[in-house]
């Protein structure tokens, strides 16, 4: 591990199997300390193209933690999770389901924006992180969970589900149900649902039904918290 840490800190390219954020996660830090440390994370290659690390944000004593996939374009530019269109839709759905968005903690399985461009100067197009990249970023999520100690995790989408529950996770099979699993050494309750960006990508004639489905899943989460 010391060798990996030294090479990573120096900016050298490590084998993909060796990617991990673990050497960058400070022991005993609070959320602000983690956020400062994460700004310098070089645990996988995603930091090279991203504007900045986008760490979790919200109520440090939140009863519910919402975990998404990765920052989007607006999040990457602003440095805060869920500030783009998907975040605004999520806040609306949470409020409608009976969960105060201001009393949640929101974060992502991966803390850097992964994207591709069709041509130079074209808009940045989201690209799903690999399982190895999600695993590399896992120590940050584990540290957030240990500090926030939420009563419930809302899993937003397939990528977040795979990061937390393994590669066999299928959101369509378990959405809107309450799961009990051990996550990063902690017993957790989880309610999976779709990522709000999936609602935005739905066809016009299907979007309202997709939104109602998201609200229905979040109402299940609200029931756990009641």
TrEMBL record:
Q: Name one Pfam family in it.
A: UDG
For molecular function, the Gene Ontology terms on record are:
4 iron, 4 sulfur cluster binding; deaminated base DNA N-glycosylase activity; metal ion binding
**GO terms of biological process kind:** DNA repair
The cross-references to CDD domains, in alphabetical order and at most eight, read: UDG-F4_TTUDGA_SPO1dp_like
Which residue intervals define the domain Uracil-DNA glycosylase-like in the entry? Answer: 55-219
**What keywords appear on the UniProt entry?**
4Fe-4S, DNA damage, DNA repair, Hydrolase, Iron, Iron-sulfur, Metal-binding
Q: Which InterPro entries match?
A: UDG_Type-4/5, Ura-DNA_glyco_family4, Uracil-DNA_glycosylase-like, Uracil-DNA_glycosylase-like_sf
PANTHER family from the entry? TYPE-4 URACIL-DNA GLYCOSYLASE, TYPE-5 URACIL-DNA GLYCOSYLASE
Name the protein family: Belongs to the uracil-DNA glycosylase (UDG) superfamily. Type 4 (UDGa) family.
The protein depicted here goes by the name: Type-4 uracil-DNA glycosylase
Q: Which organism is it from?
A: Streptomyces mexicanus
| Native organism taxonomy | Bacteria, Bacillati, Actinomycetota, Actinomycetes, Kitasatosporales
């Amino acid at each position: 591990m010391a060798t990996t840490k030294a090479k990573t800190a120096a900016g050298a390219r490590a084998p993909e199997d060796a990617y991990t954020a673990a050497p960058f996660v400070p022991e005993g830090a609070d959320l602000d300390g983690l956020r400062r440390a994460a700004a310098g994370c070089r645990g996988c290659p995603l930091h090279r193209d991203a504007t900045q690390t986008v760490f979790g944000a919200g109520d440090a004593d939140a009863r519910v933690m919402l975990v998404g996939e990765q920052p989007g374009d607006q999040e990457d530019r602003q440095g805060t999770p869920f500030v783009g269109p998907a975040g605004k839709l999520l806040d609306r759905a949470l409020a409608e389901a009976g969960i105060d968005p201001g009393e949640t903690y929101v974060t992502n399985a991966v803390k850097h924006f992964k994207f591709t461009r069709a041509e130079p100067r074209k808009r940045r197009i989201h690209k799903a992180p690999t399982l190895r990249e999600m695993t590399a970023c896992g120590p940050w999520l584990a540290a957030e969970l240990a500090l926030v100690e939420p009563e419930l995790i809302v899993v937003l989408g397939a990528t977040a589900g795979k990061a937390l529950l393994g590669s066999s996770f299928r959101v369509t099979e378990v959405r809107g149900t309450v799961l009990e699993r051990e996550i990063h050494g902690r017993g957790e309750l989880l309610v999976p649902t779709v990522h709000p960006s999936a609602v935005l990508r739905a066809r016009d004639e299907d979007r309202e039904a997709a939104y109602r489905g998201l609200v229905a899943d979040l109402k299940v989460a609200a029931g756990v918290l009641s």
